[in-house]
Automatic annotation (TrEMBL), chain A:
InterPro entries: Bact_Polyamine_Transport, MetI-like, MetI-like_sf. It comes from the Bacteria. Belongs to the binding-protein-dependent transport system permease family. CysTW subfamily. Pfam families: BPD_transp_1 (PF00528). This is ABC transporter permease. Keywords: Cell membrane, Membrane, Transmembrane, Transmembrane helix, Transport. Residues 63-255 form the ABC transmembrane type-1 domain. It is a multi-pass membrane protein. Signal peptide: none annotated.
UniProtKB/TrEMBL annotation, chain B:
This is Spermidine/putrescine import ATP-binding protein PotA. It catalyses: ATP + H2O + polyamine-[polyamine-binding protein]Side 1 = ADP + phosphate + polyamineSide 2 + [polyamine-binding protein]Side 1. Residues 5-235 form the ABC transporter domain. The gene is potA. The keyword Membrane applies. Part of the ABC transporter complex PotABCD involved in spermidine/putrescine import. Responsible for energy coupling to the transport system. GO terms for molecular function: ATP binding. SUPFAM superfamilies: MOP-like (SSF50331), P-loop containing nucleoside triphosphate hydrolases (SSF52540). Keywords: ATP-binding, Cell membrane, Membrane, Nucleotide-binding, Translocase, Transport. Its EC number is 7.6.2.11.
């Protein structure tokens, strides 16, 4: 009997935790369908704010910018971060460690990194724009991708690299046919992480995007709008972002499961 | 017989550790050669140098008379079967085996044919599409062997290939390896620290100690005429009896005379050595004799190992007799037993 009661109690706690996590989000999703648009009163179901959102050129442009920054910086940092992780692991096996240096961008506060990047760009006289946001995002994404791939490398069996060489493969062939496929789940996970981090990154983008409206990203756009209160359009936007994130999450899990047996 | 591989004063130093120390060897075409030695004696290091994974600190490696010391591993007609098997986890059994042939840029049809052929040889055709993680230890081992063999290297190196297998499977695989070696006509160098395995499989055995070559000879020679006391005790079981020398006369500690041929130029403290299975119960008919009390008997199925405490030796004397011999059934702990052996079975070593 006692067991049963403990079990019920645990279920209750679990329920509360989930409620705590998801009630705010459901409220937001619900409000995005509120015809009246005021958070204080429900006045009926409507899709009109969705229509309004898609008519808002500023928001669409910002979403487009965010997608570009996310995809390009994720792609670049996945390639560089993977190679970096492999290189560092090889060096480490030979006894020299430079790990701390790589992970610094992960622990340095974003605001510091943002100021540093801005000063750096202005020192070099680089015109600010989307390209500088991309470069800045690569800087911190690199560290995350590298960390994810390195975690997988810790359990990597290096004798398969020697086996590949022994069977006649060049270093490049070994990388392409043995190392990368075995690391694939970690590389994909790192890439997705980089993408999501980049999509909701605000501070660094804010500092490095410059003054033009053309290089405003989604978080910056939302920040600009929210200064005049939470509009129904923001609820709609947030709902769409949640949907997008859920699809990405499901996709990455699917990939990892259906992926290669790399443990 | 032609020489396939020559090692000339091969050296490998890791810092101040001399892992391989001036090893010179000739290995013949089609030979089944075993490298034997205690843990840390340099077996793996030597093998990895032959495969090309460790640079030489000194000396030369010649294959068919050509110096290959500086040829990288992917350009040597030599393959290594890894101790951990090192199968590619993301490839099927067939893909693992085909990999080395793909590196040779062979036509697809030939690759498929050779893979099928070798899968049949190792009796794994039914599992061709499985991933390594879905195989048993013995099956993985056979895939690793096939992957190296399918390239038809001039020389196949095997690092403790049977290390992960249980005793019964080991025995089967030992015969299997010999059969495959014979069928393919490839020179095998196998590393093992299991002396019995080396005796069973090899045409010749090299014993390494602290990176140095101690002895290199056929199994019977190594067993019957070990180069020194270390080799004698390393291969099989050996009874070592400290003896005092007076000219050509040797006496054991409790006074009995040991008759043996003393090799030329041997000085200092000596020991006499005799194998357990050369000890006989009809001591009166033998040239050498020792007696003592039975400490324990161990039944091994085919034979019985009797441990005998004798004042002549610091350690118990070990004697092997056929288990169903009439006398063997009546042995009891504490019984006094007299054992004899012939002069021809006695070896003398520096202590
Ligand atoms: N990469 C290395 N760096 C430093 N020392 C090494 C290295 N590899 C081997 N050694 C040393 O060289 C010696 C020989 O090692 P090796 O692995 O060849 O021994 P082994 O005969 O294969 O032993 P085992 O039977 O335990 O496998 C050991 O003392 C070992 O510590
Ligand atoms: Mg070893």
């Amino acid at each position: 009997m006692a067991d049963r009661r403990t079990f019920r109690l645990m279920l209750l706690i679990l329920g509360l935790v989930f409620a705590f996590l998801y009630i705010p989000i459901s409220v937001l999703v619900g409000l995005s369908f509120n015809a009246g648009g005021m958070p204080t009163a429900w006045t009926g179901f409507s899709l009109k704010w969705y229509g309004a959102l898609f008519a808002n050129q500023d928001i669409l442009r910002a979403a487009g910018n965010t997608l570009i920054v996310g995809l390009v910086s994720a792609a670049i940092s996945t390639v560089l971060g993977t190679l970096l992780a492999i290189g560092v692991e090889i060096r480490r096996r030979k006894g020299s460690v430079l790990e701390t240096l790589i992970f610094a961008p992960m622990v340095i506060p974003d605001i510091v990194l943002a100021i540093a990047l801005l000063s750096f760009f202005s020192l070099l006289d680089v015109r600010l724009g989307l390209h500088t946001v991309i470069m800045a995002h690569v800087v911190f994404n690199l560290a995350y991708v590298c960390a994810v791939v390195r975690a997988r490398l810790k359990s990597f069996d290096w004798s398969i690299v020697e086996a590949s060489t022994d069977l006649g493969a060049s270093t490049l062939t070994t990388l392409r046919r043995v190392v990368l496929p075995v690391l694939a789940p970690a590389i994909i996970a790192g890439g997705l992480l980089a993408f999501t981090l980049s999509v909701d990154e605000f501070i660094i983008a804010f500092f490095t995007a410059g003054a033009q409206r053309a290089s405003i990203t989604l978080p910056m756009q939302i920040y600009g709008m929210i200064r005049f209160g939470v509009t129904p359009e923001i609820n709609v936007l947030a709902t769409l972002v949640i949907g997008f994130s859920l699809v990405t999450l499901a996709l990455s899990q699917r990939l990892n499961r259906g992926g290669l047996p790399g443990q | 017989m032609t020489t396939l591989l020559s090692l000339r004063h091969v050296e490998k130093h890791f810092g101040h550790v001399r892992a391989v120390n001036g090893v010179s060897l000739d290995i013949r075409q089609n030979e089944f050669f075993a490298l034997l030695g205690a843990s840390g004696s340099g077996k793996t290091t030597l093998l990895r140098m032959l495969a090309g994974f460790e640079a030489l600190s000194g000396g030369q490696i010649l294959l068919n008379g050509k110096d290959i010391s500086h040829v990288p591993p992917n350009h040597r007609p030599v393959n290594l079967m890894f101790q951990s098997y090192a199968l590619f986890p993301h490839m099927s059994v067939a893909q693992n085996i085909a990999y080395g042939l793909e590196m040779e840029k062979l036509p697809r049809t030939e690759i498929r044919q050779r893979v099928d052929e070798i899968l049949a040889t190792i009796q794994l055709s039914a599992l061709a599409s499985r991933k390594p993680e879905q195989l048993s230890g013995g099956q993985r081992q056979r895939v690793a062997l096939a992957r190296a063999l399918v390239k038809r290297p001039q020389l196949l190196l095997l690092d403790e290939p049977l290390g992960a297998l249980d005793k019964k499977l080991r025995g089967e695989m030992q015969l299997e390896l010999k059969r495959i070696q014979h069928q393919f006509g490839i020179t095998f160098i196998i590393v093992t620290h299991d002396q019995e395995e080396a005796l069973v499989m090899a045409d010749r055995i090299a014993i390494l100690q602290h990176g140095e070559l101690l002895q290199c000879a056929p199994p019977r020679e190594v067993y019957e005429h070990p180069a020194n006391r270390f080799a004698a005790e390393f291969i099989g079981v050996m009874n070592v009896i400290p003896v005092a020398r007076d000219g050509a006369k040797l006496t054991a500690a409790e006074g009995s005379l040991i008759r043996a041929d003393i090799p030329d130029g041997m000085g200092g403290d000596l020991v006499a050595a005799v194998r357990p299975e050369r000890l006989r119960l009809d001591a009166h008919a033998c040239e050498n004799r020792l007696s003592g009390r039975i400490l324990a008997t161990a039944y091994h199925g085919l034979d019985l190992q009797v441990h005998i405490e004798t004042p002549a030796m610091p350690k118990p004397l070990i004697c092997r007799v056929t288990a169903d011999a009439a006398e063997a059934r009546s042995f009891r702990t504490g019984d006094v037993l007299s054992l004899g052996w012939s002069r021809a079975d006695t070896r003398i070593f520096a202590a």
